[in-house]
Design a protein that fits this description.
Number of helices: 3
Order of helices and strands: HHH
Number of domains: 2
Oligomer: single chain
Helix content: over 70%
Number of strands: 0
Radius of gyration: 50 Å
Structural class: mainly alpha
Distance between the termini: 170 Å
Largest sheet: none
Strand content: under 5%
């Protein structure tokens, strides 16, 4: 009885033989040119189905009027352009504000100088006319 293989050993041996035969058949299949062609066609079909699926989903999103990826990207570009334009306008406003301050400051200085000149001129002329009127009244 010790010489007879057990049912487990027989099953294991049969399983290993089947595995070797399957591995040999798979290696022969993989080494053939037809397997490469079949794999390439299968890949093409899967990629085609993926593209059809994405296109269908994009069409569905458009028909539901939900913002899709393209819409969000376009809005992002428009927002960036608008921000750039707004920044340019802000810089221009600040520049004009600075020019206006400088102009007001220079005109204020000019008016202050002209007032001080006119005040000193009028006080001189008022002083001389007062002295004339005093001399006339004393005579």
């Amino acid at each position: 009885m010790a010489d007879q293989p057990s049912s487990q050993d027989t099953t294991r041996r049969l399983y290993e033989d089947a595995e070797k035969q399957a591995a040999s058949a798979m290696e022969q299949l993989v080494h053939s040119n037809s397997f490469g062609e079949l794999l390439a066609r299968s890949t093409e079909n899967v990629m085609g189905l993926t593209k059809i699926g994405f296109d269908t989903f994009d069409l569905l999103v458009r028909n539901l009027r939900i913002a899709g990826r393209k819409d969000v990207v376009n809005l992002g570009r428009q927002l960036a352009r608008t921000e750039d334009k707004l920044e340019r306008v802000l810089q221009e406003v600040e520049q004009l504000r600075d020019e206006l301050r400088q102009e007001r400051a220079s005109s204020a200085r000019t008016q202050t100088r002209s007032r001080s000149r006119s005040t000193s001129s009028s006080s001189r002329s008022n002083g001389s006319s007062r002295s004339r009127s005093k001399s006339k009244s004393s005579s």
